[in-house]
Amino acid sequence: MEIKKAELVAVTADPKQYPPDELYEIAFAGRSNVGKSSLLNLLTNRKKLARVSQSPGKTRTINFYEINDSFRIVDLPGYGYAKVSKSVSESWGKMMERYFETRQGLLKVIQLVDIRHEPSKQDVQMYDYLKHYGLDGIVVATKADKISRNQYQKSEKVIRQTLGMKPEDKVIPISSLKKTGHEKLLEEIEKILID
Ligand code: GTP
Ligand code: MG
């Protein structure tokens, strides 16, 4: 699949302002700073479509991007940023729950984890949450340029084990910096949309 058109159609924490639930959606989840916005820019081949933050925790809203006028990629707010208050993390939880529970068009949530580290406790919680909703199955290992290719297999194994992934589930290493791995993800997205 080639992304020819990408457009930010809604930035909101309020379900009343979500775009109409009439297109399929594929969302990106992951801790703050893991590289969600950078991946979106890579996939859409647009440098500044999604804001890439120098300071983590920038994306506090759900950002809906309409792709090729036919489906949406949804950038979910990052979790696990240490400096947020309890009330902020509670409202984050409510925002995610409302989105996951009400969105008819939501087909899959792609979980992003940093290729260098064992997934955190919150990554595991998030992935369990996705399993609960039947939205799991694809994990992107970000910042793949930070390790050498011969370390990929070992990282993948750690990610698979820590998240408790099924053998048929996918781990896709991607570098938004070096622009590698995204074709594979686009193929998977295409499969999900066709199914
Ligand atoms: P929040 O919006 O805060 O949740 O963060 P995010 O997940 O959207 O991360 P973002 O894309 O803003 O990237 C965070 C930082 O990681 C930025 O400084 C990026 O330049 C850097 N980064 C993202 N992807 C890569 C990558 O593939 N390789 C390297 N080396 N750095 C990356
Ligand atoms: Mg972001």
Automatic annotation (TrEMBL):
Record keywords: Cell cycle, Cell division, GTP-binding, Magnesium, Metal-binding, Nucleotide-binding, Septation
Residue intervals of the EngB-type G domain: 22-195
Pfam families: MMR_HSR1
InterPro entries hit by this protein: G_ENGB_dom, GTP-bd, GTP-bd_ribosome_bio_YsxC, Small_GTP-bd
Highest rank taxon of the organism: Bacteria
Cofactor: Mg(2+)
UniProt key word Cell cycle: yes
Record flagged with keyword Disulfide bond: no
Role: Necessary for normal cell division and for the maintenance of normal septation.
PANTHER family, alphabetized: ENGB-TYPE G DOMAIN-CONTAINING PROTEIN, MSS1/TRME-RELATED GTP-BINDING PROTEIN
Record family assignment: Belongs to the TRAFAC class TrmE-Era-EngA-EngB-Septin-like GTPase superfamily. EngB GTPase family.
Protein name as annotated: Probable GTP-binding protein EngB
